[in-house]
């Protein structure tokens, strides 16, 4: 079950005043998935380019414990809040 701090960070990311870079968005996506689901066990998309980037970002986190992904996600959201608010 996600921590209250993680759930709060997941809400705060939607309040950023400007859009983060694509790299930051991929990191957020992958960390969120790793924290909430765990290792990527899905099939790599074939023709969906955006989906392939998202899949690979999540795949690159394979083996990281969900609690560690939560910690990294919270830290990234805090960093983005300073840049985009």
Explain what this protein looks like in three dimensions.
Helices cover 64% and strands 0% of the residues. It has helices spanning 4-12, 22-36, 49-59, 66-84. It has a single domain (4-84), classed as Acyl-CoA Binding Protein (Up-down Bundle). The mean pLDDT is 96. With 85 residues, the protein is mainly α. It has 4 helices and no strands.
Average pLDDT, rounded to a whole number, is 96
Helix-residue proportion: 55-70%
Strand fraction band?
under 5%
Categorize the overall geometry: globular
Radius of gyration: 13 Å
Q: Which residues form runs of ≥5 with pLDDT under 50?
A: none
How far from one another are the termini? 29 Å
Write down the CATH class: Mainly Alpha
Structural class: mainly alpha
Largest sheet: none
Count structural domains.
1
Provide the CATH topology.
Acyl-CoA Binding Protein
What is the string of helix and strand elements? HHHH
| Tally of DSSP β-strands | 0
GO molecular function: fatty-acyl-CoA binding
Region (Disordered): 1-20
Keywords: Lipid-binding
Pfam families: ACBP
Keywords:
single chain; about 80 residues; mainly alpha; Acyl-CoA Binding Protein; 4 helices; about 65% helix
